[in-house]
Amino acid sequence: MDKDIKLVAVDVDGTFVRSDYTYDVPLFKRILAAMQEVGCQFVVASGNQYYQLRDLFPDYYDELSFVAENGVLSRNERTCFLRLICLSRLFTR
Predict the structure, then answer these.
(1) Given this model, what pLDDT does residue 88 score?
(2) Could you tell me the keywords of this UniProt record (predicted)?
(3) 93 part of a folded domain
């Protein structure tokens, strides 16, 4: 694996997982191990809720980073960011 790549972000729906929300777990474990060996972070990205995404990776969700809920929530193993949107600003002219 290229040591210059520091982060790989993947969209979940229709890209990483199949239509039944499964994926090749043994293959993913091998790829994740190779990424971690060279210091490359795996980021799960989706408009879905964080806990729904976390459930896709029950054995290693704490090793991954997430951008969930259309970017409102971002989490890695050390930090969780929650961006609050003021709805009144969206509807004022």
Answers:
(1) 46
(2) Hydrolase
(3) no
25-50 confidence digits (pLDDT tens):
999 999 999 999 999 989 888 888 88
Could you give the residue numbers annotated as active site? 11
In a domain, 77, yes or no: yes
Both structure tokens of 29: 């474990």
Give the span between the Cα atoms of 32 and 27, in whole angstroms. 9
Q: What's the rounded Cα separation, in Å, for the pair 15 and 79?
A: 26
Instruction: Return d(Cα 34, Cα 19) in angstroms, integer.
Output: 26
Total of domains in the chain: 1
